[in-house]
Structures are given as C-alpha cells and as structure tokens.
Specification:
Blueprint: E1 2-5, H1 11-15, E2 23-34, E3 46-57, H2 86-107, H3 125-129, E4 134-143
Antiparallel strand pairs: 1-4, 2-3, 3-4
C-alpha cells in the first residue's frame, strides 16, 4: 500500500518558481518500527519504510558551466598535471590541520578550551554561509 503525506501546499508554489541558481531533489530513507504492546491477530508489530523528499536550492550558481562535453581530450593531458604543486600541498596541509585540531578539541579533554578555526575558508564561503531554501516535496510511505 502506498500513500503520500504532503507538506504545506503553499510550499509547492516556491518549487514551481525555481531559483536562478538551480535546485536539487534530495531523498532520504526513514524507517520506523511500531511495536504492539499487546499482540493479537489484529494488532501486530509493523515496520514502515518511507522515503522523504526535499527540493533544495543551490546557493552557488552553476548554470553557466558547459555540459556539452569534455573540455579537452584526456589523452592529450600531460601526466605532470596530476602532480600537486607546493602551493596545493600547503593548502591541503592547512585544511587537514584544521580538521585534526577540531577532532583533538572534541575528543581530548586537554584541548577543550583551545580556539579552533570552525570553518575552512574557500572561494564560495560567503554563499555557503547563507541558509538554504528547502521545500518539502512530501513523504512516500510504503507499508510492509
């Protein structure tokens, strides 16, 4: 048996006016076990498998990127392009050190009061700091 649990129908109006940056449809599994306190022929344990759907607007505009095909033939790219430059090594080292410091602060009592950078800066930091526009697309419930 299938049925839909709908969210606020006013939210659908937002969905049909997609933002200029585009949007993605995201699904996630939700599982619920319903246990009967007193079992009988009419009251059995039940398990609900559900799929929850959301439409999330993109905060960074990717509409102008070319999707027509590859930019170059992969065989013409020199092998040296795959090797990291010293600058790239330093950026990776800085990012990993932030992640290690976060883990140390979270799991080691000695570092609890240490100041740690909570966000690794990047070129889209400003856009990614904004709250996403999320529109509920409903929940599909499958009773098994």
């Amino acid at each position: 048996m299938f049925w839909f649990l709908w969210c606020n129908h006013g939210d659908w109006f937002k969905l049909f006016q997609p933002p200029q940056t585009g949007f993605h449809i995201v699904f996630d599994n939700v599982n619920i076990d319903i246990r009967s306190r007193h079992k009988s022929l009419q009251r059995q344990n039940r398990h609900l498998d559900m799929v929850h759907g959301l439409a999330v607007s993109d905060r960074v505009n990717c509409q102008d990127l070319d999707n027509s095909g590859p930019a170059v033939d992969i065989m013409s790219v020199p092998d040296s392009i795959w090797l990291l430059s010293p600058e790239e090594h330093n950026r990776i080292k800085a990012s990993v050190s932030v992640l290690v410091k976060r883990a140390m602060k979270q799991h080691m009592a000695y570092f609890k009061d240490t100041d740690v950078l909570e966000h690794i800066p990047h070129e889209n930091s400003k856009e990614m700091a904004e709250k996403s526009t999320i529109v509920c697309t409903g929940m599909l419930v499958i009773v098994t």
